[in-house]
Amino acid sequence: MTTVCSTGPDANVVDTVVVGGSAGGFNALRALLSELPADFPAAMVVCLHQPVQAHLRFAESLASHSRMPIETAEDGRAIDPGKVYIAGPDRHLMIGADHLHLRRGAHENNFRPAIDPLFRSAAVYRGPRAVGVILSGLMDDGAAGARALSRTGGQIVVQSPETTEFPDMPQATLDAVPSARDVALGDLAATLVDLVGASCADQGKVPWDIGMELKITSLEGSDMESERKLGTLSPFNCPHCNGVLWEIEDGPLTRFRCHTGHAYSIQALNDAQEEALDAGLFNALRAHRGRAELVRKIARSTRNKTSRKTLEARAERIREDTELLERIITRRSGAPRA
C-alpha cells in the first residue's frame, strides 16, 4: 500500500474527505452532515471513537441528519463520490487505491478503529486530493495522521477548539500541523464545499516512513529490520503486548510503536501505562488475598505446632502486604493522572 495515488481523470481534483473525532464528535459530525448538500462531490470516510454497541447503529443514527447516503464501511467496497462511509467496530478503516480496507491491526492510541491509520492511508493514496477534518475529542488520536496527510499535500481542517465539547483533539492537531485551518463548527460545511472539487497538484513520492507505518497497520508483511528504521529503541515496553517500543520523533510529535504494531502518542502511552499498572495492582491484590487464605488453610491442617506457627506467621506477612497494596490502590485512586 505504499504506491502513490492514481493518475486517473480525478487525480488532480480534491475528491476525498477523511474525518476523525472522539468525545463530542458525534454531535459535531451530525451538525456537519446536516449542512452538506446532497450533491457534495467528494467521498467522506469517517472514523469516530465509539463503543462497540454504538458502532452497530452508528450509520443508521446519522442517516436522518444527512442528505448524502451513509453506510458502514465494508472491506473492498468501491469509494464513490457523494457518499459517507463510517468505520464499524474493531477494525481499522483505511483507503486503498480505489476502495476501502478493513484491517484488524494492532490498536493505535488505544483504539481500533483509530483515526491515525485512516488519515495515513489518505496520505498515501490521496495526498493533495484529500481534506482531513478533526472534530471534538479527548486526547490526540489523529494528530500524527493529520501531519502525515499534510506532508503529502493534503489540507487539514479542525473544528475550532472554542466550538467543541472537548478541545483536546483539535488542539493537538493544530499543534502538530501549524498550517491547519481552524474553523468554527457552523462554518465547517461551507469550508468543505469550497475545498472539494477544486483542482490540486499532482502527488509526489510518498515519504518512506508514512508508507511503512501504513503497512504495519495493514498487516502487510512488515518486518522488524524495516520497522526499527522508524525510530530508536526506548526504555519503555508496550502496555498491550510487553514488546519493546521504538521512539519516533515526528516533527513536534513524540510517538512510540512496537514491532507487533501497537502505536501510541506520548499521551496515549501514559494513559495505557496507567491502565496496565492499575490492572497489575489489582491482580497482585487478588493473588495476595488468595495466597494468604491458602497458607492459613495449610496451617489449620498441619499437626506440627512449629510448622503451624511458621505458616501462620507467613500468612500474617502476606496479610500485611495485602493491606499495603490496598493503601497504594486507594492513594492512586485519589491522585490526578499525569
From TrEMBL:
The active site is at S22, H49, D141. It comes from the Bacteria. It holds the Pfam family CheB_methylest. Its EC number is 3.1.1.61. It catalyses: [protein]-L-glutamate 5-O-methyl ester + H2O = L-glutamyl-[protein] + methanol + H(+). SUPFAM superfamilies: Methylesterase CheB, C-terminal domain (SSF52738). Residues 9-199 form the CheB-type methylesterase domain. GO terms for biological process: chemotaxis. The keyword Hydrolase applies. Keywords: Chemotaxis, Hydrolase. GO terms for cellular component: cytoplasm. The keyword Hydrolase applies. GO terms for molecular function: phosphorelay response regulator activity; protein-glutamate methylesterase activity. CDD domains: CheB (cd16433). PROSITE patterns: CHEB (PS50122). PANTHER family: PROTEIN-GLUTAMATE METHYLESTERASE/PROTEIN-GLUTAMINE GLUTAMINASE, PROTEIN-GLUTAMATE METHYLESTERASE_PROTEIN-GLUTAMINE GLUTAMINASE. This is protein-glutamate methylesterase.
